[in-house]
Hints:
Keywords: Oxidoreductase
GO molecular function, one term: 3-hydroxybutyrate dehydrogenase activity
Oligomer: single chain
Protein name: 3-hydroxybutyrate dehydrogenase
Number of domains: 2
Family: Belongs to the short-chain dehydrogenases/reductases (SDR) family.
CATH architecture of the largest domain: 3-Layer(aba) Sandwich
EC number: 1.1.1.30
Distance between the termini: 43 Å
Structural class: alpha/beta
Number of helices: 9
Largest sheet: 7 strands, parallel
Amino acid sequence: MAGDVAGTKPLIGRKAAVTGSTSGIGLAIAEALARAGADVALNGFGDNAPALASVGAFGTKTVFVGADLSKGPDAQKFVTDAQAALGGLDILVNNAGIQFVSPVDEFPDDKWDAILAINLSSNFHTMKAAIPAMKAQNWGRIINIASAHGLVASPFKSAYVAAKHGVLGLTKAAALELAETLVTANTVCPGFVDTPLVRGQIADQAKANGISEERVVKEIILASQPTKRFITADQVAETVLFLCSDAASGITGSSFSVDGGWTAR
């Protein structure tokens, strides 16, 4: 990687895997990585063809690797399949997540288990599978997409808040274990991003509070963010790109808030 190519495509030759990347934040991250020159393995629910076309448009190798991330062996197999398809793995971005809104005393057990499995345990399983090769090559980037809810809480989101707090702890522990290598582990903590997941939360909050979705956006969702603006998926993706860069090689075990000032309160 030299000259102008390194400047315009700093990740050329790198191999990346991004969970939950067929839409929303994950897709924006996958597109940013491909634009920077990385080969990318996608993963997610629904029709993956539009995401493959969008990410593949940047000219790097793009593959889809299906996996049920709620199951530990499948999450680990996602990594090994991505490694096989791409010829290695340098960057792991754990972005997959689900949400459910309910008071603690009414929270369905199965919803709690599903959220913890996908939002937290899948990160452990993919990291466990990816770290040995990263250690062997003495280079790697693990970036876990947490949330402002990894730092602060909100009512009716006990499972999500617990899982995202856990992601920060898991990432810090891995960062300390890997500190003497050139493998870093960090978290990005977005505020509310206008994605299908957040739109689902808005609908749930409207039902729980008996108000319109418009009022939820104004009085509940963006009330948390002093900027009064949604974060964009591209803003999160650019933060991930920075953490993949050589400039960020000294940063590990850190969390980066992209939340419009939410957690500054």
